[in-house]
Specification:
There is one protein chain. The protein has helices at about 1-40, 185-195; strands at about 50-60, 60-65, 70-75, 75-80, 85-90, 95-100, 105, 115, 120, 135-145, 150, 155-175, 175-180, 200, 210-215, 220-230, 230-235. By secondary structure, it is of the alpha+beta class. Strands 1, 9, 10, 12, 16 and 17 form a 6-stranded mixed β-sheet that branches. The chain is globular. The termini are far apart.
């Protein structure tokens, strides 16, 4: 009887631990999903102008900015200077959500997906299919222009305040590539391939973080639109 009772106790303990792990995993998934949704509503660089506020809440983890750049390239190389977009990244263990160049990417490097597409759009052919008219490429480049370093255990939230302005530059006809520096190149690469771009990767500045380089076929009129967000963090 004592042996049987011990086996039952061990089985119950194992079952309890298993249920606890499942509950924890589900809570973690819900947490990262909530952060991704909060990023979408709090950070609206394309549609917002002026002051915009939104709250980001999470149970456990860290919210911080990291240095990232976007480059627009033509036949001669980089057009102008790299745009310092930076990224806002939430991490908690293996969970990760990033706002980068207007995109929201959920998941760790090697297992990430684009939840919200970056504001980069292109016509399909760009004159490459026998059409003499040049195509169009519009590259939106949201820049955070602010610093964040917040961590929480057991629950926390911050208010993200942005003051958004827009600056558009029209560029000459040419063949263009867009390079976005990112820790999740596979996810962004799949997005650009769906836009009919040819995708490669390259480390432009030797810092160990590669850029996804999307080459669009044919000649295009390009527009670079920098959305300056002036990001501030407020607690409470």
């Amino acid at each position: 009887m004592a042996i049987l009772l011990g086996v039952v106790v061990l089985a119950l303990a194992s079952l309890t631990a298993g249920i606890g792990a499942v509950v924890e995993q589900n809570a973690a998934a819900a947490d990262s999903a909530r952060v991704a949704a909060d990023f979408d509503s709090a950070l609206e660089p394309v549609v917002a102008t002026g002051v915009h506020r939104g709250r980001v809440s999470f149970t456990d983890g860290e919210l911080r900015t990291v240095e990232r750049e976007l480059r627009l390239l033509n036949e001669s190389g980089v057009v102008g200077s790299p745009v310092e977009t930076d990224a806002l990244v939430f991490t908690a263990g293996q969970r990760r959500v990033a706002f980068l160049a207007g995109a929201v990417v959920r998941g760790p490097p090697g297992n990430a997906e684009v939840r919200t597409a970056p504001p980069i759009t292109a016509s399909r052919s760009g004159g490459a299919d026998g059409d003499d008219a040049p195509g169009v490429l519009v590259v939106g480049a949201p820049t955070l222009n602010g610093s964040v370093a917040v961590s929480a255990t057991g629950g926390g939230s911050v208010v993200l305040r942005t003051t958004v302005t827009h600056d558009r530059t029209a560029l000459a006809n040419g063949t263009y590539r867009v390079a976005v520096e990112t820790a999740t190149p596979d996810a962004l690469g799949r997005y650009f391939e769906r836009q009919n771009a040819t995708v490669t990767t390259r480390d432009f500045d030797g810092d160990g973080v590669r850029s996804v380089v999307a080459a669009y076929p044919g000649e295009r009129v390009a527009y670079l639109v920098v959305h300056d967000m002036r990001l501030e963090v407020r607690h409470g």
